[in-house]
Specification:
41% of the residues lie in helices and 15% in strands. It is α/β, with parallel strands linked by helices.
Length: 206
């Protein structure tokens, strides 16, 4: 996948690039319009609906907090940002289902296909967001192993990753530790499932 300028580190380590074009971070990274713009991020995948509500409210303000954010707003970056808010809540320990993982995978794969870097985030970017990223990698493999064919049609890797392989990539965000046992079991089940979600991803503008 074509890449933009190489950026080594997100300010204050709020997000980390897991594989080319796919970032994992906390809700503050999603509110950082300047850093998202620098990395060409125009797709946001939220793995906690409370974090999604906070980011939508912040990005939707007519008055930005500083001149840099104001310029980003005027350039249309905020308006062009596309997001998917998954029906997950870390406080109530919402179970991760196959339908949710397939929604997330469709959204991420479309971002990679369209060369639109994506940020996957939650409140702290270490639990549900890490679990969703792990499940996506286990189902679809790394984009580095994927290919482009049939007139730029993106084809996900057919080499599924093990949990250990996926976790090693997700651990590029050093705040991420091993998933709790119940989430790991849910991730394993979703990664191995073959059912298809007929509704496709739900898209929202922020």
């Amino acid at each position: 996948m074509p890449r933009g300028p190489v950026v080594d580190q997100w300010p204050d380590n709020h997000a980390h690039e897991i594989v080319p074009g796919v970032w994992l971070g906390d809700f503050e990274s999603a509110m950082d319009v300047q850093s998202c713009s620098t990395r060409r991020i125009s797709k946001l995948l939220c793995a906690d609906k409370r974090a999604g509500a906070a980011v939508s409210a912040e990005r939707g303000r007519s008055k930005c907090r500083n001149a840099t954010s104001q310029r980003a707003a005027e350039s249309g970056l905020i308006k062009k940002t596309e997001s998917l808010v998954l029906p997950l809540d870390s406080m109530s320990k919402t179970p991760i289902t196959t339908k949710i993982v397939i929604q997330a995978a469709s959204f991420i794969n479309a971002a990679i296909r369209d060369d639109r870097p994506v940020l996957i985030f939650g409140l702290r970017g270490v639990t549900y967001s890490a679990a969703i990223t792990t499940a996506w990698l286990m189902r679809c493999g790394s984009p580095e192993d994927s290919r482009i064919e049939d007139g730029d049609q993106y084809v996900p890797s057919r080499i599924q990753l093990t949990y250990a392989e996926a976790h090693s990539l997700v651990s590029k965000r050093p705040q991420v530790r091993q998933l709790p046992d119940h989430l790991r079991q849910q991730v394993d089940n979703c990664a191995q499932a073959r059912s298809v979600n007929p509704d496709g991803p739900v898209k929202h503008k922020v």
